[in-house]
Design a protein that fits this description.
Layout (H helix, E strand, L loop, with lengths): L6 H6 L4 H11 L12 E6 L11 H14 L3 E6 L13 H17 L4 E6 L4 H12 L3 E5 L6 E3 L2 E3 L3 H11 L5 H11 L11 H12 L14 H20 L3 H4 L2 H14 L4 H12 L6 H10 L14 H7 L1 H9 L15 H4 L24 E4 L7 E5 L9 E9 L2 H7 L12 E4 L20 H4 L7 E4 L11 E6 L16 E5 L4 E4 L3 H10 L10 H9 L15 H10 L1
Parallel strand pairs: 1-2, 1-3, 3-4, 9-10, 10-11, 11-12
Antiparallel strand pairs: 5-6, 7-8, 8-12, 9-13, 13-14
Amino acid sequence: MSNETRKSEKYFADQTLWGFVHRSFTKSMGYTEDDIKKPIIGICNTFSELNKCHSHFNELVEHVKRGVWQAGGTPMEFPTISLGEPYIKPTSMLLRNLMAMDTEEMMKAHPIDGVVLLGGCDKTVPAQLMAAASANIPSIILTGGPMLNGRLGGESLGACTDCYRFTLEHKAGNLDDGQLAEAENAICRSDGHCMVMGTASTMASIAEGLGMALPGCAAIPAVDSRRRHMSQMTGNRIVQLVKENIKPKDIMTREAIENAITVTMASGGSTNSIIHMVAIAQRLGMRLPLETFDEISKKTPFLLNLRPSGQYQMEEYFEAGGVPSLMKELEPLLHGECMTVTGKTVKENLMNVRVLDRKVIFPLAEPIEPDGGIAVLKGNLSPGGSLIKKTAVSKKYFQHKGKAVVFDSLEDMKKRIDDPNLDVDENSVLVLKNLGPKGAPGMPEEGQIPIPQKLLEKGVRDMVRISDGRISGTSYGTLVVHISPESAVGGPFGLIENGDEIELDIHHRRLQLLVDEEELEKRKSKWVQPEPFYDRGYGLLFENTVLQAELGCDFDFLLPKELRDELKSNI
């Protein structure tokens, strides 16, 4: 039990005018004198009818409140911005930092002693973890859980991996409009986020891997009654975290981040998680270079047989034991001494855990693949680094040379990709420029460049595709993303021309433009920076301050001062 004076006590025990106001206004909402003497627990509810993944959060909040009351705390619900991946244009990534700022400031500005952060959809959990790192008051993550598996004709479907598949086959002429509509009605059949190992499931797993969510939280389906039980336990536990004064920085250590990376690599997790983990680490005052991810990937076997890199989905993962069972298998590779929100260490949490289905979670000694799901690529095309989810790549493209077919923007690509006169074949490398943090703007998930119509009709379903944007964690194929520096800031990626030969070598972690330096210097001298998209407001703030992908796409002014100073000294 900590002897430190709680924040709420400073508000409500004050005998001056402001103490009177705090007590009076709070009592007017029905809270009693006894209520305001207890630990005040903020419940960050990101419910929104514009966010399908969070449509059930109002119910979960009630179960959290029950847990808080039972543990001797007083719950107070508050809202923040909610980011629903399917709707926000040009991309929800444009608003992740805004949500992190919103959440941080709400946590710091109010008389709350601890907070339960309800997230789920792709950018919400990383934004909340970034905020928790910066505000550093007792915090715990509660994710909303994945949807049940979609079902159609006896087949198990997953959003949005099968969204890509169905629309691709419709474009190829293999599905008619009625069949496409039937699939639309079958794929999302419950509350919850995407049920494959996309970004939402990856970030929920990372929250557990970091120790910031209760064990087992990530995989429970949204509509399973045990999700309600988890919500109540989370409400109960945050009160204990306040009493024990355990804060995010006590939990999210460098070793905990390495644990989370290990879980991600063994899971075949989303490439987006790399950007988010870098941003979280930097909020904690740590630099997290891409080399760290690659080092951990090389020594972490791929164990989780989940789509888009495997056969099963989150429903089966839950039945196999979820993240705790995967971590039990990974235990020799983890830092077992790390503290978690349970008040126990990782090792203590895993003491009685076992794997319940070996078809889903493979043994460490008999992995699906000997190393992790994501590879970091370097070379003259991406001196700052780029990423590929190699577990979702067609094997024939692990080493490949091909001639570039270049699109200068998303609009250019949409206009020309299906032109029957496009000079392209299945060995070509599709290149999409100006899709990065500043160039797009916001680095949208458009890196899964469509297969040209004329190749689709010939049966081609994968090609090497390269962009400085992102992809959904539900994507599959030979997709190189997060090229840095991006085209819009003068990176070498912006100098590629049609017909240039590009070499991809995943085994040797290399991405190379086979054009001599003299020619590249000539092209660079003629390069013109694109006009900015915004002349006011949040968009202008984003363009002026967002960092590149390998620095987490955070705003430079949100980094701790020591990291800001280091960044300036390296420019």
